[in-house]
Every structure is written in structure tokens, then in C-alpha cells.
Write a structure and sequence with these properties.
alpha+beta
């Protein structure tokens, strides 16, 4: 009888440990995994559970600027006019995930669609300064691309 009682006490103790420490360790592991993805896989603050989405401005306020064929004039990407659905989706994808690889894909597609020899693209994101409460934009990525010959 003593063995049976000891076994039940031990099972209860293990269940208590699992609930007390297991859940906390699981949450810690998820947090560490997300921090790893932010540093290595360019996980945005709006992805992966949204822990950082309350500390950043929505990507809809970002801007992509374009300079075509070596001109000195920068224009917003919307100045290109209506884009085909696939190219417009790629543009939206760059806004959502502003990584250099996505920006390079967009540059190649714009070059082939508009028949440009070369273009330069920059993506700018808004930011709030916590000390002054001011608003400014900073450049995230800037690329220069040449059209791919068929």
C-alpha cells in the first residue's frame, strides 16, 4: 500500500513540475526561436505571433522610390501607373517583407515590364522617435539593377 501511495505522490509531483516549469520553458523556447528567426531569416515584427507589432508602424506607410535609366529624379513607385496583377502583388510583398532579395526581384520585373535598361530602388520606412515624439523615415534597402537580356 505504501508503494502505491508513493507512486501516486510521485506522479502528482511530476505533473506539478510539468505545469509549473514545462509551460514556462515552452514559452521561453518559442521566444528564443522567434528571436533567432528575426536575426537570421528577416522575420518582420508583424509575423511570427505578432509580439513586436505593437512597437512598429504598419507597413502600409512604407514607400518605394524608383529611379529609371540613370536619371537623377527619384519618383514614388506609384508613378509607374497601373501595374499587372503579378507585378502589383510582388510590390505588395516587398511592402510586407522589405528584404533585399524581394526588392531585387521587383527591380528585375519592373525592368522587363517597362523595358528599362537599369533602375535603382529604395525602400523607406517610417519611424517614431521616442524622445522627441517626432516622425521620420529611414532607408532600409537600396539596390541598383540592370535589365536581364533575353
Amino acid at each position: 500500500m505504501l508503494q502505491l501511495r508513493t507512486r501516486f505522490l510521485w506522479a502528482g509531483f511530476m505533473k506539478l513540475l510539468l505545469f509549473k516549469y514545462g509551460i514556462a520553458l515552452l514559452l521561453l523556447a518559442i521566444t528564443c526561436l522567434q528571436l533567432y528567426f528575426v536575426q537570421t531569416k528577416n522575420l518582420t515584427t508583424w509575423k511570427g505571433g505578432g509580439f513586436g507589432m505593437y512597437s512598429s508602424i504598419h507597413y502600409g506607410h512604407s514607400e518605394i522610390w524608383i529611379r529609371a535609366d540613370g536619371l537623377d529624379i527619384w519618383s514614388p513607385i506609384d508613378s509607374l501607373g497601373k501595374l499587372p496583377i503579378g507585378l502589383d502583388n510582388l510590390k505588395k510583398d516587398v511592402f510586407r517583407r522589405p528584404f533585399k532579395a524581394n526588392l531585387e526581384k521587383l527591380a528585375v520585373e519592373i525592368c522587363s515590364f517597362k523595358k528599362y535598361n537599369s533602375i535603382a530602388l529604395e525602400i523607406w520606412q517610417p519611424d517614431l522617435e521616442t524622445t522627441s515624439g517626432g516622425f521620420h523615415k529611414h532607408r532600409i534597402h537600396s539596390i541598383k539593377s540592370h535589365a536581364i537580356e533575353p
